[in-house]
Amino acid sequence: MAKPGHKAVASNRRARHDYEILETIEAGIALLGPEVKSLRAGRASLREAFAQIERGELFLRQMHISPYEPATRENPEPTRDRKLLVHRREIVKLAKRVNERGLTLIPLSLYFKDGRAKVELAVCRGKRSYDKRETIRRREQERDAQRVLRGRGGARRD
Prior knowledge:
The protein is of the alpha+beta class. It contains 4 helices and 9 strands; from the N terminus they run E-H-E-H-E-E-E-E-E-H-E-E-H. Strand 4 and strand 5 form a beta hairpin. The model has no long low-confidence stretch (mean pLDDT 84).
């Protein structure tokens, strides 16, 4: 359920399947005018996106924001690098975590909070295929248990 003052734009549902989420953080995004208009129209994708720390600054790479059609000249490249606005101490903390073996920064969702574009970043560790199967198995067991508790159960036929 959306929080008051939040307007969801895009989410990376695949990230929760492919990665084990260890910690989340909210960051602002430095955008150009046509990009904001395009986001308000819901024309963004986080599918290939990731965040990276470079020279003490945090950047969001490979996030696709479709060009805003009425803005003909000022449309930037759809997958350009975008600076994320985070306090310096948080960047230092994230840099320490990311330098650990196998951790990465993945955007989970993109939304407007009180009129400002925000991205929810997660410090993640990639899941192995057997971890993914275990997660799916656990989710199905929980669903079956809920079904039985609601009285709509019955044995599943496999």
